[in-house]
Amino acid sequence: MDMQAILERQKAAHLRDGEASAALRIERIDRCIRLLRENRRAIEEAVNADFGSRSREATAFTDIAGSIGPLQHARDNLARWMRPEKRKTTPAILGLFGAKAEVRYQPKGVVGVISPWNFPVNLTFAPLAGILAAGNRAMIKPSEFTPATSELMRTMFAGAFSEEEIAVVTGGPEVGEAFSRLAFDHLIFTGATSIARHVMKAAAENLVPVTLELGGKSPVILGRSADLKVAAARVMNGKTLNAGQICLAPDYVLAPKDQVEGFVAAARASVETMFPTIKDNPDYTAIIAQRHYDRITGYIEDARAKGARVIELKPEGEDLSQQPHRKIAPTLILEPTDDMKVMQEEIFGPVLPVKSYQTLDEALDYVNGHDRPLGLYYFGDDAAEQETVLSRTTAGGVTVNDVIMHVAQEDLPFGGVGPSGMGSYHGLDGFREFSHRKAVFSQMKKDIGPLKMLRPPFGPGIRKMLDGQIGR
């Protein structure tokens, strides 16, 4: 497939057809919603095949319903978002004589989308909500780790959109590298920070603006006032959803020293309730590929070898060593040290380090001593402590008394900061991310005195005005 030729056709179509109307944008979004609804079963089967084992319910919830919601939100609001935004003139007196200032939201043109394997459908369609709402066209490069799902999406889009509107390009790393070098009008990449560095470098060759949705080590801070039973249930639900293969999965827990054992007991009880069995349980997701399975089990063995207490939360006697689907039981690593790999790299699996602290300052210093995370989670009923956590830490987003859920709020921006990402999307913020904010100033029609005195020859009028502006 000639990616350059597709890009050129899309750019030419964008110029030929002009700015898409609100009606056309809505119709394109409705086509996406229909694709998701009509292909629900095929999507569930393809994702399950790619993972080896992933529940239909998890896919329906995260990838299908989780995509329809953002698309509907964009569809229902885009006409309002498209309206020019009035701004004040400078100096204000110009406005009194008829000058006007406004911001117009103009489609950028063609947006490239590099989507990942962990939620292959959602992290393709959710960005499309903002991309299409802003009036753009799109080229999509899905992950090679989910070949069945990627091929299904290619077929789905080809049946509902012309290649001038949305095109899907499949292939391995070499295709992804070439894709990231294309002269898009904007590029959004969702994936690992290490790969993002290469993507951003490639995009820089054409000065393509980028949105990077990455990850990192998102911490959970348990306050002393936290309800351990509720906190553990919500943390472990977030950690076992998709077997922890989520950019926003809680990556480690900071707990008061005297509450660590209580958290462990509550975590064990919550996992036993959710997963009475793991090995043949269709509700428990497998690790996507052998190399990721080896990486995650390597973290566990490295921590055990370096003295950590390792607790597998699996049914008594259930052996996961001989199985076809690469499942790893939820695993707690107690009192990890920073020389352990599990504390140095994003885990992206069902392994959860639990580290104790004596004072809140100690916990905050630990968080602030590392890269700014994509998400941060605080549990507790102490309003003053909560405000301290919010004001003294920096993260892409925060959920209080739960994990991950801020990503589901369509009216909140979603994005990282520093190594966890760049730019944000969802809802209005997505519309603006994929739009060019064009400043438009309309000068007053009459050539009155204040305008004339700005032109030579300069006289006492402009000197008086400058003295007033600058001051003495």
UniProtKB/TrEMBL annotation:
<dbReference type="InterPro" id="IPR016162">
    <property type="entry name" value="Ald_DH_N"/>
</dbReference>
<dbReference type="InterPro" id="IPR012394">
    <property type="entry name" value="Aldehyde_DH_NAD(P)"/>
</dbReference>
<dbReference type="Pfam" id="PF00171">
    <property type="entry name" value="Aldedh"/>
</dbReference>
<feature type="active site">
    <location>
        <position position="247"/>
    </location>
</feature>
<dbReference type="GO" id="GO:0005737">
    <property type="term" value="C:cytoplasm"/>
</dbReference>
<comment type="similarity">
    <text>Belongs to the aldehyde dehydrogenase family.</text>
</comment>
<protein>
    <recommendedName>
        <fullName>Aldehyde dehydrogenase</fullName>
    </recommendedName>
</protein>
<feature type="domain" description="Aldehyde dehydrogenase">
    <location>
        <begin position="6"/>
        <end position="440"/>
    </location>
</feature>
<keyword id="KW-0560">Oxidoreductase</keyword>
<dbReference type="InterPro" id="IPR016161">
    <property type="entry name" value="Ald_DH/histidinol_DH"/>
</dbReference>
<dbReference type="GO" id="GO:0004029">
    <property type="term" value="F:aldehyde dehydrogenase (NAD+) activity"/>
</dbReference>
<dbReference type="InterPro" id="IPR016163">
    <property type="entry name" value="Ald_DH_C"/>
</dbReference>
<dbReference type="InterPro" id="IPR029510">
    <property type="entry name" value="Ald_DH_CS_GLU"/>
</dbReference>
<dbReference type="InterPro" id="IPR015590">
    <property type="entry name" value="Aldehyde_DH_dom"/>
</dbReference>
<keyword id="KW-0520">NAD</keyword>
<feature type="active site">
    <location>
        <position position="213"/>
    </location>
</feature>
<dbReference type="GO" id="GO:0006081">
    <property type="term" value="P:aldehyde metabolic process"/>
</dbReference>
